[in-house]
Every structure is written in structure tokens, then in C-alpha cells.
Amino acid sequence: MINTTASNQSKQITLLQNYQKGDFLLASPKQMILGKGVFANVHMLNSHGIIEQMKQSLNQAKLTGHARPIVMGAIPFDFSESPKLVIPKEISTAAPLEVKKQVEWRKASSSTFEIKAVPDPEVYMEGVRKGLKAIDTDHIQKIVLSRSLHITSAERIDTHQLLKNLAYSNKTGYTFAVDVSLNEQKDTEPRTLIGASPELLVSKTGQKIVANPLAGSRPRCKDPLEDEQQAKELLESAKDLHEHAVVVDAVKKSLQEYCLELHVPTTPSIIKTEAMWHLSTEINGILKDPHVTSIELAMALHPTPAICGFPTEAARNTIQEIEPFDRGFFTGMVGWCDEAGDGEWIVTIRCAEICGRNLQLFAGAGIVTGSKPEDELAETAAKFGTMLQGLGI
């Protein structure tokens, strides 16, 4: 377990300031953690067998002199693709970020840029129609369909400033940055996965675990009365409550076999980010076996219906037929696991990949019976807002 000893604001901001491209950073409501340098890479061609490989890597690092080995990094949506995991040389932690106002907020991109939607809006809405047809004919209850924005800035994107902007405006969520450059990449331009996710996949501390699935969303409004009405409609929406229940039920079933106790609220609550309202259910449990690791729990849950659909395989196959791009690390997970098995894994949403002047944003929406293509398009547009605001676009 990581012991966070510093709770003063100066150390929190220092960790954020000390981030450099190539580092791992995760700022969560529990703590901020920064990993620098590479003590060892966790080499894997795909994510199958990842639990044993991570245990072996942690044991080997301990034997070769690492005082506190922790595996950190990102795992893709598709387990057949390669994860990006390392054991950093240096690990620093601090209490959760507590900044009462946005400090040092500046634009992170040029004022001149090009944006290309992939797919374009009409094609995305046609994909939603195909998803609804699959629900009607293929016994799928839910499918999550996503789209992306490709942004080219006239100048290099300031990854560090973007990370700070996201962290200062996302103190109740999970801000992250992970180097996802290919190991064999010869050029010097790193590729960074960066985001501000509202969703905890699972965390483990000793025998205690927490999962916090989100499903069912509404865009925020600038007008306070309209914003309050959006939240009220979300809590009363039969379509969104059904979508949420599908996700919570799947998470509950996945965790039950691991737990002595599992508390699942009967009705969802509501949470907000800068851009969205979400239906939320916090699930708490006590493990039967304290040696079960956070990564084992995360792999048992992934992919939840919140980012894939249900039933999983049917939804995943339909996603591959409809979406015109490879998700990569989007809707995968980002996090860490230490030698005791404790850790924290976040659903990789509200995110982008950055390489030099190029940035690819991602956003998705859950499709169920009753979904409307134009509403799902609007939802993805609102979800892009988290990253676009961080960039200053």
C-alpha cells in the first residue's frame, strides 16, 4: 500500500510541476502519484496473462534492488493489443489536489488549428442507427459507440500545461498522463495518453475494494436553472436508468465471487463534471482473499457495459463492425498496482493521445432501446468539451 504522508498544497503542486513527458501521473480523490524514469518495462505482446506477468515483474524488481516497486501504465480496450506498463525508478505521492481556483491556467494549443471528425457526424448517426438495429435483432441490450476528433495545431501542443489545466478543473475526478510510445519507436517524439476521467473502474486497499460505474449522461448548461433541470431529467429518465442498471448489474456479478461482503445501492446518485452530469453508483466490498490484486479485479471487470455494451462479446463484435477506427487505449484502463496488490484503475475516457502538433480526442455514448442518433451525437460533442476546454479551444 502506498503511504501518503504529505498533505500540504505545495507538495501537490510540486508533483504536478515536476511532471515531464514520459512520466506517469495520476491525480485522484485519494492521492496524487508521480512515477519518473524506467526501472523495468513489463514487456507483453498483448494483455493476456497480464496478472502473472505483473506479479513476476514486481518480484523481480524487488529482488534486483527496487525499494518500492509499483507497476504503472495503460491497458488497451482490446486485450489482443499491447499494454504499456512500466515500473518507474522513482515514485512520489501527495494528498489529493486541493486548489481553490484554477492556478496558471493557460491555453495549451495554438490559436490556429485544424479539426477533422472521424467519422463525420452523419456517419456517426448512421452508426447509431445500425447499433439500434443490432439491439432489435441480435439480442444486444446495450452498445457503446464512439467517435474521434483529429486536431492539428499550428504549434506543438503543450502537454504539461494541458495536464495542469485538466487537474485544476477536475479535482473530484481522475487526471492522468501516461507515455504510450511504442517500445521500438525510433523517433524522439513521445506519444502521451492524457485525460480527465470521471470513472473509477476499481480500487483496492487491503481487503477493501471500491468500484464506481457511471452510465447515463446529460450535458451541463451554463444557466443554473437549465442545468438543474438537466440533472432532474437524468434522475427520472427511464432510458438512462435502464442503461445504468445494465452496467451496475454486470459489475456486481463480476465482483461477487471475490467478496465476503458487497454493498450495492439500490438506486443511483448523480455526479457532475465541468461538462457532464452522470448517473453514478458507488459499490463497496470486502474481499474473501486479501491477496487478490487490484489488476486481477480490474481485468475481471473490463470491459464493463459502460464502455462496451452487453452482452460483452456481441457488443464488442458490433463495435468493430461499426466504428471506423481502432480505439487503442481509449476505453481501456489507466492505473497502478503495488507488490501488495493494492492499486487504483481508472476507465480511460475523456481522453486524447498527443504526439507533437497532433492530438486525437475520443468520446462515446451508450446506445439502448429508445436512444436517438441526434441525442447521442450531442452527448459525444459535450464529452469532447472536457479536453477542448483544457486545450483552450
UniProtKB/TrEMBL annotation:
It comes from the Bacteria. GO terms for molecular function: isochorismate synthase activity. Its EC number is 5.4.4.2. It catalyses: chorismate = isochorismate. It is an enzyme of class 5 (isomerase). The keyword Isomerase applies. GO terms for biological process: salicylic acid biosynthetic process. Residues 121-383 form the Chorismate-utilising enzyme C-terminal domain. InterPro entries: ADC_synthase (IPR005801), Chorismate_C (IPR015890), IsoChor_synthase (IPR004561). PANTHER family: ISOCHORISMATE SYNTHASE ENTC. Belongs to the isochorismate synthase family. This is isochorismate synthase. It comes from Virgibacillus salarius.
